[in-house]
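#random but structural
TW: two for the price of one
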Amino acid sequence: MDLITSTQNPRIKDVVVLSEKSKYRRERGLAVVEGRRELENCLAAGFEPETVFCCPDLLSREEALTILGVRENVLVEVSQNVYSKIAYREGTEGIVAVIKVKERHLDEIKADDGSLVIVLEAVEKPGNLGAILRTADAAGAAAVIICDPLTDLYNPNLIRASIGGVFTSPVFACTSEEAYKWLKSNKFRILTAQLQDSHPYYAVDMTKATAIVFGTESDGLTDFWRERSDEKILIPMLGKLDSLNVSASVAILSYEAVRQKMSRR
């Protein structure tokens, strides 16, 4: 197997562009995954690697093949200076993969009359979304629906923040209209997290099919969801500030749904 030692190699340049340009990722139908846990979760979710770049100074070829289960025909070894060029974070683990992404549609969601769905309007930061995906996985949410068609689900920072949860979690990007239509056709009760005209979250039944909708920290929810909610809920704020980080809010309300369901078993 040849070792790539030049950062000017066309394959290396291509990985760099894929990491940096969301438009290029969409056009190619590819994404870049860095790190062992992230790649393990990606492969376990059934995503196919196009190429896996391994730096033998950091991770042996044998480890990549046996521990991660990477196929030999997609494995390419690179020198440490080349690896530093394609890696986008410190404390890295010697492996970067280019994977084929999958189109996701709302009708793929597997929901029942006790499911929880998390709906997000206009996600601002990949770090917040990554944390939310980890919470959704832990709380057993049926789906995370992002109502922003410009959301890049395969942003490298999102993949890192979610520890690969973007691959393992049922996460979908669509318009608010599409999300609302799907929720109503599947008989979900829609709760909006907002301060105005709301009840404390712990006083609201979340044991049936429930969708909780969250807005941005700066602007809150749009009128689209405020006008269509079945009930409005709030998290009591006892200090001087009137806003929690959206990922913290998702965690609190998701686990209230978990608590209510478990207490009725």
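TW: number two ↓
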Amino acid sequence: MLILGIDTSCDDTSASVVEDGKRILSNIVSSQEDIHKKYGGIVPELASRRHIEMIWPVVDEALKSANTKLDELSAVAVCYGPGLIGSLLVGCSFAKSVCFSKGIPLVSVNHIEGHIFSSFLDEGGPLVDKGFAQGAPEFPFISLIVSGGHTSLYRVDGFRRYKELGRTRDDAAGEAYDKVAKLLGLGYPGGPAIDRLAHEGNPAAVDFPRAYLPGDFDFSFSGLKTAVLNFLRTKVGSRKPNAELRTLNSELVKDICASFQQAVVDVLVRKTEWAAKEEKVRRVTISGGVGANSALRRELALMAKKGGLQLFIPPAALCTDNAAMIAAAAYHHFITHDIAGMELNPVAYLPL
């Protein structure tokens, strides 16, 4: 069973051909990083216009790389939300056009659900010596989804059996990374830049707060972001610290990155650990762009080893937005005869 997945939920245009919901035959991603970095973040109008330019070349490349023709597809799957509405419109319109013209079944997938099923893809192979478990996770498991738009914990008991345990009350973790990077003048995207500099800094140099929010599994990173801003103000003596960063030495910037990152990772790891213990579940998965963060992967592996948990983490390329995860989730929709109609419309806000 071959499914073509399409994802245009944010700024990356992606298409992928996946066999039987697991085996990736192709996974093409066209990044818009060079377009948006000059603005310090994603500009929705520019993102949607670029999707229009790239959607057909990316799909064509995915089919060619998989040595597959449209007539050989069992279904076309598209992410219809949540995300930027202009970007989602491009993917949904293209997918519906292909399905209508070729008579191929259309499957609609929630972006968050796609992240959950990224751990079922074959490229998420085992790294046992680093604490990662073999193969695909068995149900039930705890799923930590952490990206620029989402920071949530789910208990997953099976396909379409999802229980939200906690979510961010304000900024998502990835959003906090981007905003702190902007304060430090590190550019966009902020996550990789902070992770890189954090390797050379002291994570104990600055005692940034951890919002553990006792009593539930919700997250909050807005206060941490403000703490970094206030710390910078004390160091540069300006209410606009990014305009005075030349007064900071490079070692201090590295220490700020390391301390900020440690605060984020501590909260994500502890909340995940507590959720697994509370739900009496021995398997944990992580997905989303921040799932590619080296410190988070390392600390989760240590937590899992200490607690006797199985930890499933896809490769970094499958943590960020990609169409393979959309096709993986769509497989389960397709085999249960959950087919979308031509009246499908994207939805910017779409709870799982």
